[in-house]
C-alpha cells in the first residue's frame, strides 16, 4: 500500500494491550525491529510519575515503534504516534486521533487539487453499474463513484466523478450525463 500512495494513515492499535499490534506490523512491513523509543519511553514515564500512576509493562508498550520512526506528537494523552516513510500511525481514540492529525496535516505536501462533479441519477445502482463501469474504463484518469440514496419512498444514485484536471473531469462527466439521459429516454 505504501508504494501505491503518497501517504498512508492508520488509526488504532498502538495502545497498551496485547492486541495493539500496529507498531509491530508496520515495523515488519518496513523490515526494521519494533523497539522502545527512548524519548517516548521517558515522556510516558515522566507523565505517569507526575500523576502518581505506576508505569506498568502494558503502559510501556505505548513507547514502542519501528526503529527510525519519527514521533507524531500527542497533546492529549502524551503517548506519541509515529511516522516512518510515508506511513503515519495515530491513536484510535477519535479526540486523540484528531489532535495528532492536526500536527500531521501541516507537514504534508499537497499536489494538484482533486476536482469533483456530482451527477444526479434517478435510477438505482443495479441499472447503472454496467454502463458506469464502461465509462470508468474509457476515462482512466478519473475516479467514478456511485452512491445509492433513498428518500421519500424512492431510490436514486449520486454519481460522483473525480479528476485532477478539468478536461478529464468534464469529459467523464459528459459521458455520465449522456448515460443517465439515455437510461431516462429508454425508461419513457
Quickly give the structural class. Answer: alpha+beta
Distance between the termini: 46 Å
The CATH class of the largest domain is identified as Alpha Beta
User: β content, as a range?
Assistant: 25-35%
Global outline: elongated
Q: What is the correct CATH architecture of the largest domain? A: 3-Layer(aba) Sandwich
How much helix is in the residues? Answer: 25-40%
Description:
With 188 residues, the protein is of the alpha+beta class. It has 2 domains: 8-107, Molybdenum Cofactor Biosythetic Enzyme, Chain A (3-Layer(aba) Sandwich); 115-187, Ribosomal protein S10 (Alpha-Beta Plaits), CATH 3.30.70. 39% of the residues lie in helices and 26% in strands. A 4-stranded mixed sheet has the order 1-6-5-4, with helices on both faces. A 3-stranded antiparallel sheet has the order 7-9-8. Helix 5 (125-138) runs antiparallel to helix 6 (166-187).
Amino acid at each position: 500500500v505504501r508504494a501505491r500512495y503518497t501517504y498512508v494513515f492508520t488509526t488504532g492499535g498502538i495502545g497498551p494491550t496485547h492486541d495493539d499490534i500496529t507498531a509491530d506490523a508496520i515495523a515488519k512491513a518496513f523490515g526494521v525491529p519494533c523497539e522502545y523509543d527512548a524519548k517516548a519511553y521517558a515522556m510516558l514515564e515522566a507523565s505517569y510519575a507526575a500523576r502518581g500512576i505506576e508505569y506498568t509493562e502494558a503502559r510501556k508498550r505505548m513507547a514502542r515503534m519501528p526503529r527510525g520512526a519519527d514521533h507524531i506528537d500527542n497533546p492529549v494523552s502524551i503517548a506519541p504516534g509515529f511516522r516512518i516513510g510515508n506511513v503515519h500511525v495515530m491513536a484510535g481514540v477519535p479526540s486523540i486521533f484528531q489532535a495528532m492529525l492536526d500536527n500531521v496535516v501541516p507537514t504534508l505536501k499537497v499536489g494538484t487539487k482533486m476536482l469533483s462533479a456530482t451527477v444526479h441519477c434517478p435510477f438505482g445502482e443495479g441499472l447503472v453499474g454496467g454502463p458506469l463501469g464502461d465509462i470508468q474504463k474509457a476515462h482512466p484518469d478519473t475516479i467514478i463513484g456511485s452512491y445509492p440514496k433513498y428518500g421519500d419512498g424512492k431510490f436514486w444514485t449520486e454519481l460522483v466523478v473525480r479528476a485532477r484536471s478539468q478536461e478529464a473531469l468534464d469529459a467523464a462527466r459528459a459521458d455520465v450525463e449522456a448515460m443517465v439521459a439515455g437510461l431516462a429516454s429508454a425508461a419513457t
